[in-house]
Amino acid sequence: MRAVVVDETGDPSVLKVREANDPKVGPGQARVQVAAAGVNFADVVMRRGFIPSPLPMIPGVEGAGVIESIGEGVTSLSVGDRVAWAPVMGGDGTVGSYAELKCVDEGSLIPVPDSVSLETAAAVMLQGLTAHYLVHDKKKIEPGTTVLIHAAAGGMGLLLCGWMKRLGARVIGTTSTEKKAAFAREAGADEIILYNEEDFVERALELTEAHGIDYVVDGVGKTTFARNLECMASQGHICLYGMASGPPDPISPLLLLPKAVCISGGMMTNFLRSRDEVLRKGAEVFAGVEAGWLAPPQITTLPLEDAARAHEMLEDRSSVGKLVLTIEG
Questions:
Q1: Residue pLDDT, tens place only, 32-55
Q2: Backbone phi, psi, residue 312, to 5°
Q3: For residue 88, which phi and psi values (nearest 5 degrees)?
Q4: Complete domains list, the chain, with CATH
Q5: For residue 243, what pLDDT is reported?
Q6: Residue 321: what pLDDT?
Q7: pLDDT digits (tens, 9 = 90+) for 230-284
Q8: pLDDT tens digits, 50-86
Q9: Can you give the three-state secondary structure of the chain, one letter per residue?
């Protein structure tokens, strides 16, 4: 099979497409003919070596395709089923999605409705499940809740804008350009802060008439995290779920006292603790896509051979929405 293989960690140039051994399906697994693989910062982190991974490595933690064969003990899936996957329930068995074939544990596979394309499924699975817990499990969102979403024009940000708006929140997003701002507004953002042109803290306080932000959803990290505290409302909540700009600097807990601010960390696997929960939340994500209110992020597709270019676009923030690698078998 063709696959993207990393022999040594480094910049995007280490992503090489070559022939690799076909994976052998094991007990409790299904072997999938991969149609599309989502490109995520988790892939970048592993490629850089920030998360130690055995080498050589095939990156990619998310994808979608059609089951080609099933292993012993698989009871809920059949050959020919359309499925998507993401790293759920604490497992890392989904790594290796940048390839024509992928063996995935039954517990990580989620059925894809016929009305949802496999490219769309690969684009929304990981980020849809992440958005689900950020919207429903971290803080109660109700009409009037003021939410600040950093990187609002990314694949994650667009999904969050739409979901928060559906629940009645006032959504403020940060983006780097007016072009990206237009996508965030279309997804549901009420106000946009262009962080390259204006101070996001000052503008957030101005937009809220000094009340501050009730809930900050931060997947950026180092360049935003500490300053979030400056624009929080009383009893506000900051959830850090990603580190696109790098790990945040440490802060003193004493900084949380004046406004009784809560800070929490987000990791999707903590909110997918059983097979039933995985299937329910996955179905809810796809139901939102089918109904049209959870609009898929803008999807930019590139062939498997352009994996290095996809990583470059993700790292320099030139992409809008979601990057997906398409694989032709």
A1: 999 999 999 889 989 999 888 899
A2: -60, -45
A3: -100, 160
A4: 2-127+269-326 (3.90.180.10), 139-265 (3.40.50.720)
A5: 87
A6: 86
A7: 999 999 999 999 988 888 999 999 999 999 999 999 999 999 999 999 999 999 9
A8: 888 899 999 999 999 999 999 999 999 999 999 999 9
A9: CEEEEECCCCCHHHEEEEECCCCCCCCCEEEEEEEEEECCHHHHHHHHCCCCCCCCECCCCCEEEEEEEECCCCCCCCCCCEEEECCCCCCCCCCCCCECEEEEEHHHEEECCCCCCHHHHHHHHHHHHHHHHHHHCCCCCCCCCEEEECCCCEHHHHHHHHHHHHCCCEEEEEECCHHHHHHHHHHCCCEEEECCCCCHHHHHHHHCCCCCEEEEEECCCCCCHHHHHHHEEEEEEEEECCCCCCCCCCCCHHHHCCCCCEEEECCHHHHCCCHHHHHHHHHHHHHHHHHCCCCCCCEEEEEHHHHHHHHHHHHCCCCCEEEEEECCC
User: What is the rounded radius of gyration, in angstroms, for the C-alpha atoms of the chain?
Assistant: 20
Residue 236, C-beta contacts closer than 8 angstroms, at least 6 positions apart: 212, 213, 214, 215, 216, 259, 261, 262
| pLDDT for res 170 | 98
pTM for the predicted model, two decimal places:
0.92
Buried b (16+ CB within 10 A) or exposed e, 179-198: ebbebbbebbbbbbbebeee
Partners of 19 in beta bridges:
2
Q: Are 7 and 14 in contact (CB under 8 A)?
A: yes
